[in-house]
Structures are given as C-alpha cells and as structure tokens.
Amino acid sequence: MRKRISTQVEAKKSAGTYLIFQLAGQHMSVPVDRVREILDAREIQPLPQAPKYIMGFIDLRGDSIMVIDLRTLLSEAARADDLDTRIIVLMVNSGDKEQILALRTDKVLEVASFDNDRIEPIETGTILNWDRRIVSGLARREGQYISVLDLDRMMSTEVVASLKAAHKQLDANEAVDA
C-alpha cells in the first residue's frame, strides 16, 4: 500500500492586482502598484562594460532609466524586439531607497487579479537546489500558472551576483561543448 504524502502548504492572499506579461513563453507578473509606465520598444543607449543583462538607458521625459533585459537576467535565449515587445518602468526597493528601473519583456498581457486571489509559495526550491529568490510564488489566472516575481530580491546585489556567476558557468560550459 502506497502512502500519500501531502504537499499542500498555506497559500497567501495576493492582495491586489498584478501586471501579467510573457517572457520566453512563460507568464510572469509584478504587483501593479509597482508599475509606473509601460512603453513600446525603443532605442536604448548602451552602457560600456555593463553586464549582459543591463541593456543600457532610455530617456523618459528627461530622466535616464536603466533597462534590464529580463531574458538575459533569467538565462533565456536572446530575442529581437518585435511589435509586442514592451518596457515596463517600475519601482524597486534597494536597501532603504526606492529606485526606478525598467524591464524589457516579450509581451504585456493584462492587469488582473489571480484565481481565488491566491499566491502559492514554492516549497520545493530548497530540495531541488534551485534559487527561488527571484520568484515569490506561483499564482493562477484562468487556470494557467503565473510566476510572481519578487522585484526587490531579484534586483538585490546578492541575487544579481549569483545570477552573474551562473551565467559565467553556462558560458564556460558552452565553450567546452563547442
């Protein structure tokens, strides 16, 4: 007789609405109250010697806003801009101050609440040795899974440094395989 192991954990209320977008075929979201603006793709001024995930800066009504390529940051394949590409300008907490930055995404889908107004924690991350610091949980919208990004942790120095190290390892592995 096989024992059934319960993996159910306490889901938390999502407390509001989220901007849902698409990246590499996956649905992701950020709290809508952190979003300042959604822009069409535009020219980005490169920043010399910047890490690959920093695309550069855009001018937004006289302010210089750093643009992060979310695909590169999350180790997804590069993709050229198309008519659906969007730049999401948002607020991120860095230490004790708020900063404005922008994320380049494949497509913005909608602003909505999640099914049952719930975000489920990801408990298996530690078992699988997966760094889940950039995802605060999983939600569902019309039955489809949506990763809820943790903007503050995703942009923290510690997480960016670990992602950078992972990118270097991937680059080294690709060079060996070539």
Keywords for this structure?
single chain; 178 residues; alpha+beta; 5-stranded mixed sheet; 12 strands; disordered N terminus; CheW
Write a short abstract of this structure.
The protein is α+β, with helices and mostly antiparallel strands. It is built from three helices and twelve strands.
How would you portray this structure in words?
The chain is an alpha+beta fold. It has one domain (14-177): Beta Barrel (OB fold (Dihydrolipoamide Acetyltransferase, E2P)), CATH 2.40.50.180. Helix content is 16%, strand content 41%. The strands form three sheets. The protein has a five-stranded mixed β-sheet, with no helix packed on it. Strands 4-7-8-6-5 form a five-stranded mixed β-sheet. A two-stranded antiparallel ribbon has the order 1-10. The model is unreliable at 1-11 (pLDDT under 50).
